[in-house]
Design brief:
About 25% of the residues lie in helices and about 25% in strands. It is of the alpha+beta class and about 160 residues long. Strands 1, 2, 3, 4, 5, 6 and 7 form a seven-stranded mixed sheet that branches. β6 (about 130-135) and β7 (about 140-145) form a beta hairpin. The chain is globular. The chain binds tetrahydrodeoxyuridine.
């Protein structure tokens, strides 16, 4: 038996101004995408902005329903729309931002397990890493691929 450690390397920014210009644009788009949230039940607004290799930024926002499981997270709204409309495009970077009752959360957004699994699927499909940016008002984290937010991903594909 061996006890092993698993380390995850990511970048953490204390302000959006520290980021690359294209990432700043994506962060702004994710925050702006919160306007499309339909969240009368949770009052938690999530915006997602997905940069494709064709230059487009696809936006998503969480959509809720009185029959709770019928709703969908912001990340999957964006990825499914991109997958349906631009099936050959590479999903380069996905930024996510959450707000409580309209106020951007201090801590970085943390995608649910189902969204992480969907990210993993598209990353595998495209054969190129999908970078992830998780936005908070006090901290922003950037990960170089989905594996870093879904350790021990069930697929054996290695992106690093
Ligand atoms: N939500 C997202 O849109 N993305 C996530 O990664 C986590 C949660 C949404 C679902 C629901 O509309 C609300 O946030 C509260 O859970």
């Amino acid at each position: 038996m061996a006890v092993k450690d698993f380390n995850i390397r990511y970048e953490e920014f204390s302000s959006v101004e520290e980021m690359l210009p294209e990432d700043q644009e994506l962060v702004a788009a994710a925050i702006d995408a919160q306007k499309g949230s339909y969240s009368p039940y949770s009052n938690f607004q999530v915006g997602a902005a997905l940069k494709l290799d064709n230059g487009l930024i696809v936006r998503g926002a969480n959509q809720e329903n009185v029959a709770y499981p019928s709703g969908l997270c912001a990340e999957r709204v964006a990825m499914f729309w991109a997958g349906a409309n631009y099936p050959d495009a590479v999903m380069e970077t996905l930024a996510v931002a959450g707000a409580n009752a309209g106020v951007l959360c201090e801590s970085p957004a943390s995608p649910c397990g189902a969204c992480r699994q969907v990210m993993a699927e598209y990353q595998k499909k495209q054969g190129k890493p999908m970078k992830i940016i998780l936005v908070g008002s006090k901290r922003i984290r950037k990960y170089s691929c989905v594996d870093d937010i879904l350790p021990f991903i069930f697929d054996s594909l290695k992106m690093r």
